[in-house]
Amino acid sequence: MRSLGSCCLFLFLLQPESAFALRLDQEEVRTILDNVAIHLEKMQLTSGRYQYEFNPFTGDFTDDDNVVRQVGTLQSMSELYKVFEDEKYLERLKKTADYWLEQSVRDVTPDGLVLRYIPNEVHGDEAKTGTMALFIVGTRVLKEVGDPWWLAHEQEMSEIENAIFWLQKADGSFAKSYHHGMTEAKKEATPNLDFFDGESMLALLKIYRTDRDERSRNAIYAALSHWERAYVDEYAKGLYLWAMTSMRLGYELFEDGRFATFADIHQALYDNYSPPRRVFFSNNRCATLEGMSQWMRLQQQLGVERNMHEKYLDFSLRRIARLQVSREHKLRVSYNGLMLRIAPRGIGIGGILTGLNQPVQRIDFQQHCISAYRAWLIYLDRIKNQPAVVEE
């Protein structure tokens, strides 16, 4: 990243307090989401993948990248489509999906199962489990709406789904990675990761939602049993947001109290870890707020009022909105004894910063913010009996 000078110090962003209402309403949330969508459109390359991270004040892209987070942009487009019901988001989604399918590798397990994985590097022989899981989560909308893309790629999608099913271990967890030619013994010896356990559970639920198949159901309940053993004594940071999304969807699909019970247990663990007080923070908390928003949607479905969490979410999502770059933002920096105010570059308008002390825009933070605000929008719509957003 290009420096503004050896003595340059990022201080804070300036934006008038009057720009924020006392309570977020649906129109404000839609505006926030629309602005993020505009930013992501500019971040997408002609190939279909995305620029990973951008500094809107220097105009520089960083050299960092992450395949799991790149694939997570599919979920961003899926969620935006469900908010605005605009086909352009599906077109961008398909463009990204085509890119990653071109990078994917076909393999056959020792027991004869044909699967497909998306490697960490081009032509690589190792893949993170979360990559395949998020590919399923993000593209499943194409099957839901009957898009011709799905029929054209049905075989490839089936092989990617096979990878997730195969990576589930005997205890219900998921091996954190796949290696070309991997054996059953190697899979069982590979540790799991809470992030990927959560993403894989959500992928299974997305499959079951459209297919209602026994294989998915069995895998879901095996994963749930693992969670009930492994994740009820201590808050699992990497699991939280995926757990709450999964438990809400699982309860909706199966009407089984086990999903709601696990969600409440893990929410209590989170509350003990980080009590929901209205504190001032300067960093992007969208991943956490996404999880809590999903839990609140579940509470809403159960008819349970959670006033403290509701107020915390409203307050926190308003705070996050301060990190969304607009043309009115100015970055104050000290440079060679002078105090300068720097305006953002056009491509950064609408993107949400990593933090006030980290003035960059990363694609996974955009994804988590989209999911958090969309979940909150559905929550607000249901309060007002206005189901204006496509639910799931």
For the largest sheet, list the strands in their spatial order: 1-8-9
Instruction: Categorize the overall geometry.
Output: globular
CATH class: Mainly Alpha
Strand content: 5-15%
CATH fold label: Glycosyltransferase
Number of domains: 1
What is the element string, with H for helices and E for strands?
EHEEHHEEEHHHEHHHHHHHEEEH
Helix fraction by DSSP (H/I, runs of at least 4): 40-55%
CATH architecture: Alpha/alpha barrel
Q: How many whole angstroms does the radius of gyration measure? A: 21 Å
Structural class: mainly alpha
Number of strands: 10
Low-confidence stretches: 1-22
Number of helical segments?
Answer: 14
Mean pLDDT across the residues is 90
**Terminal residue distance:** 40 Å
For the largest beta-sheet, the strand count, sense and barrel status come to: 3 strands, antiparallel
Summarize the structure in short.
It is built from 14 helices and ten strands. It has 392 residues and is mainly alpha-helical.
Please describe what this structure looks like.
- With 392 residues, this protein is mostly helical.
- It has helices spanning 26-43, 67-84, 87-103, 129-144, 148-152, 154-167, 184-189, 194-211, 214-230, 240-254, 257-273, 286-302, 307-321, 363-383; strands at residues 9-14, 53-55, 60-61, 105-108, 114-117, 126-128, 177-179, 330-335, 338-342, 361-362.
- It has one domain (9-383): Glycosyltransferase (Alpha/alpha barrel).
- The protein has 14 helices and 10 strands.
- A 3-stranded antiparallel sheet has the order 1-8-9, with no helix packed on it. A 3-stranded antiparallel sheet has the order 3-2-10. Strands 4-5 form a two-stranded antiparallel ribbon.
- It is globular, with a radius of gyration of 21 Å.
- The two termini are 40 Å apart.
